[in-house]
Model the fold of this input.
Amino acid sequence: MRHRCVRRLHVHLGGVATRSCVVPISLVGNRPVVTIEAMAEDPVGRAVQDEWVSLDVVQCGYCQSGQIMSAVALLKSIPKPTDTDIEESMADLCRCATYVRIREAIKSVSQQMK
Done:
């Protein structure tokens, strides 16, 4: 069974989307940690955030920072993800069930990427 954090606070740890709620600082080492705040400076992160706004993905916002961090990590590792890739990578629970808009945003950014 996968561990599910109550709130999805993702970071990119060494380029990998990681649930910050289950990683003790002692395991971080020298790996770079990137938070949602840095996504505006990242081209893929900025594109994902812009598409989230354009498609009105957010309803309550509870899980969205984690969703965005997961989406960016997915697009960096698989620039043209399939629906299955998206479903497997986007493991966060969205209480508002905006999964269709999340998938649409990821696909849209994927199509924009070169």
Summary: The two ends are 37 Å apart (CA to CA). The longest strand covers residues 10-13. The chain has a mean pLDDT of 87. Strands lie at 10-13, 16-19, 33-34.
